[in-house]
């Protein structure tokens, strides 16, 4: 059996299955008479009365109703919002996986009996969404002992048709998130820039216009900052644009999202330490979020015009690699002194951002990148760093992040930080050695390549793209951070 979530309006309680209900915090259990026999209902009431006296605080309660059947209660509190229900769904998945419950029937209508909420159907969808996001796994390369957990979750509700008709929006988001997670999880010997391009090309079947710029084209355009990063690798570098025109009648400027796609980052000549270098396959997570976002928008037929741009390179040491002390000319015309070849992501983004601004003249640009280790030191795995030249755009992103749980924290940009990126021999240097504030000065570097004062935000997702521990809606590993955040931003403000 494959992992399956289905909607139904008939409840079963067959041998070996687990029946699941929502329960309010007072443990008041009400259910239609046709669902349970009087004997079973009495057992449940006695059990809950005993729990109430013990003041149990667990969110999920399980007990054996018979020798081969279990009952689960999901305790819900007053005033829960949508992302709380997503977390409850994720908690249910973790619980049934841990306890190996492969057939679970959720009687969703029990949420209605307490009359706590106005949009119960929508909350059920959020619950299922959280369950599904948590269920992701990447087992593509396991040949033995896969430990794959297969389940059947049946959502039983009188609103079966309404749930079916509205779940497509959530499925589109899940598809985009899972696509981003898959990309980040791929090993670097598989996902080099050329292979990445081939994967992106497949999105054209969804109505996304794909444009590929190879090294020859980029050289003619003057993208020497991006090309410099990849020149030490035997694998060719690329820039890819993805255009989704969901509102062809609109004359509004498109929204632009730019992602760092360093498929593997050794640090180049400024070589990284060997320990944990294998994690540098995740250095393309910003671009994966952009790809996942475009896929989500296309699948749900979003009525908005969006462009995604990904700079795809590999940063390797070789006889042809970029060297500390080199000076390169960027697409914008500004010259960059390379002080450290491990500060490569900003070089890729500098050309990609300037190119996006000039070619597409967007309403705004948001870039995503696993840019600095400094952001992990300051914010850990709880928040992405947010930097922006626009209070309006920044406030919108921050507000959305609180609603859906993909958290961001705005850090300052200031002229005194900007001065730390001045070079004595070029227009700008690619790293600041003298004043600390590594994440801020990296953002100041990027801001210099916004030439025409386009509203811009930079998300440093180095601590959020991959997690060594399972948390919230994410399993251990790639998170797909950014897809849900930016999809909701578009949905709420720009459609």
Description:
It is a single chain. With 495 residues, this protein is α/β, with parallel strands linked by helices. It folds into two domains: 4-158, 3-Layer(aba) Sandwich (Leucine Aminopeptidase, subunit E, domain 1); 173-493, Zn peptidases (Aminopeptidase). The protein is 35% helix and 20% strand. It is built from 14 helices and 19 strands. The strands form four sheets. The protein has an eight-stranded mixed sheet with strand order 7-8-10-9-13-17-14-15, sandwiched between helices. A hairpin with a 5-residue loop joins strand 3 and strand 4. The longest helix has 26 residues, at 160-185. The protein is elongated.
Stated plainly, the CATH topology of the largest domain is called Aminopeptidase
Query: Helix coverage percent of residues?
Result: 25-40%
CA-atom Rg in angstroms: 25 Å
Distance between the termini: 39 Å
Q: How many strands, which pairing sense, and closed or not: the largest β-sheet?
A: 8 strands, mixed
Q: Low-confidence runs (pLDDT<50, min 5 residues)?
A: none
Q: Give the CATH H-level superfamily of the largest domain.
A: Zn peptidases
Total DSSP E strands: 19
Tell me what portion of residues adopts beta-strand conformation: 15-25%
Q: What is the CATH class name of the largest domain?
A: Alpha Beta
Shape: elongated
Structural category is: alpha/beta
- CATH architecture heading of the largest domain: 3-Layer(aba) Sandwich
Count of runs of 4 or more consecutive helical residues = 14
The residue-averaged pLDDT reads 93
For the largest sheet, list the strands in their spatial order.
7-8-10-9-13-17-14-15
Give the total of domains: 2
């Amino acid at each position: 059996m494959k992992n399956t979530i289905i909607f139904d309006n008939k409840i079963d309680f067959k041998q070996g299955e687990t029946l699941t209900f929502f329960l309010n915090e007072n443990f008041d259990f009400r259910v239609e008479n046709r669902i349970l026999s009087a004997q079973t209902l009495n057992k449940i009431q006695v059990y809950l009365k005993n729990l109430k006296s013990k003041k149990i605080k667990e969110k999920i309660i399980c007990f054996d109703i018979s020798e081969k059947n279990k009952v689960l209660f999901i305790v819900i509190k007053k005033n829960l919002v949508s992302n709380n229900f997503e977390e409850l769904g994720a908690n249910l998945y973790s619980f049934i996986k841990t306890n190996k419950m492969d057939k679970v029937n959720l009687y969703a209508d029990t949420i209605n009996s307490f009359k706590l909420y106005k949009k119960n159907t929508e909350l059920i969808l959020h619950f299922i969404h959280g369950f599904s996001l948590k269920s992701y796994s990447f087992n593509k390369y396991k040949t033995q002992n896969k430990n794959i957990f297969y389940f059947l979750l049946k959502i039983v509700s009188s609103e079966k048709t309404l749930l079916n008709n509205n779940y497509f929006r959530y499925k589109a988001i899940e598809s985009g998130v899972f696509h981003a997670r898959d990309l980040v999880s791929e090993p670097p010997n598989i996902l080099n820039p050329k292979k990445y391009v081939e994967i992106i090309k497949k999105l054209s079947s969804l109505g996304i216009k794909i444009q590929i710029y190879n090294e020859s084209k980029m050289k003619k355009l003057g993208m020497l900052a991006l090309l410099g990063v990849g020149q030490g690798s035997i694998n060719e570098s690329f820039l890819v644009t993805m255009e989704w025109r969901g509102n062809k009648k609109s004359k509004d400027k498109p929204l632009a999202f730019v992602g760092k796609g360093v498929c593997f980052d050794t640090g180049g000549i400024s070589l990284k330490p060997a320990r944990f270098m294998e994690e540098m396959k995740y250095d393309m997570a910003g671009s994966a979020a952009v790809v996942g976002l475009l896929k989500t928008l296309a699948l749900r037929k979003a009525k908005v015009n969006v462009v995604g741009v990904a700079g795809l390179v590999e940063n390797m040491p070789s006889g042809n690699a970029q060297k500390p002390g080199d000076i390169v000319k960027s697409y914008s015309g500004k010259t960059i002194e390379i002080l450290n070849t491990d500060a490569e992501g900003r070089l890729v983004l500098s050309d990609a951002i300037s190119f996006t601004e000039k070619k597409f003249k967007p309403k705004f640009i948001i870039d995503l990148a696993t840019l600095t280790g400094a952001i992990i030191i300051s914010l850990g795995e709880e928040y992405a760093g947010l930097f922006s030249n626009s209070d309006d755009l920044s406030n919108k992103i921050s507000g959305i992040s609180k609603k859906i749980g993909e958290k961001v924290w705005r850090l300052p940009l200031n002229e005194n930080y900007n001065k730390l990126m001045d070079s004595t021999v070029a227009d700008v240097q690619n790293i600041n050695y003298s004043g600390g504030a590594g994440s801020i000065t990296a953002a100041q570097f990027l801001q210099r390549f916004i030439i025409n004062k386009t509203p811009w935000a930079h998300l440093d997702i180095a601590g959020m793209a991959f997690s060594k521990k399972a948390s919230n809606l994410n399993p251990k590993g790639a998170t797909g951070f950014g897809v849900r955040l930016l999809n909701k931003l578009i949905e709420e403000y720009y459609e």
